[in-house]
């Protein structure tokens, strides 16, 4: 999953965030599977093809052959299948049944031995079992859909075996705090830190090229400060082993101010040194 390019901000909370966000992601699933940006046809045609997200991760990800891994918030499974192609024994978990239907279809088309499980991320330990995994992978644009980074860290710790590893690449909370509707500068318009109430937005578009529009438009998001993420993991028995900030992100997060680079990533056209756009965090369970 990835955070949306935000639309109109809406006041108030009308429903449980999971109901609203799940309805939105169920509609995105078929649009994303048909989008050229997800490259589903290349997965089917090229047995060694990897998603651009996982290709970017490779220098820090290293060798995952033989590891039992779980990909939390796996969406339509392109990153999950990419990790399986690198030799990991993968399980993908997501709360959207429509997304998992697309993931299972892609796994069948590609002959990938991947299990896909429907569950909310906070229920992952009870559904999958505790201390079963060598690797927890959380791809970019996932944490913004979760209200509590502490509960997420508890989930990661519960899934990992002793010595197991977390690999997280995520949109930077500085990017999450920027108001993309202000186009003549980088303006902070949203919280950097986690807040009790969500940011509520309404938007009928998504972050990749599609031919359709969304009918379920209301979404709830939260930002999580970098220190909050690190502190939650440390408090739950993980040791930080790596933290790298990047000047790029895989989607056009600030339309009109970004350009696509040779790695299929988006960078600021002007002054890319002024703000981090994403980060990679690695940690190990003691």
UniProtKB/TrEMBL annotation:
<protein>
    <submittedName>
        <fullName>Methyltransferase family protein</fullName>
    </submittedName>
</protein>
<dbReference type="InterPro" id="IPR029063">
    <property type="entry name" value="SAM-dependent_MTases_sf"/>
</dbReference>
<dbReference type="GO" id="GO:0032259">
    <property type="term" value="P:methylation"/>
</dbReference>
<dbReference type="Pfam" id="PF08242">
    <property type="entry name" value="Methyltransf_12"/>
</dbReference>
<dbReference type="GO" id="GO:0008168">
    <property type="term" value="F:methyltransferase activity"/>
</dbReference>
<feature type="domain" description="Methyltransferase type 12">
    <location>
        <begin position="71"/>
        <end position="166"/>
    </location>
</feature>
<keyword id="KW-0808">Transferase</keyword>
<keyword id="KW-0489">Methyltransferase</keyword>
<dbReference type="InterPro" id="IPR013217">
    <property type="entry name" value="Methyltransf_12"/>
</dbReference>
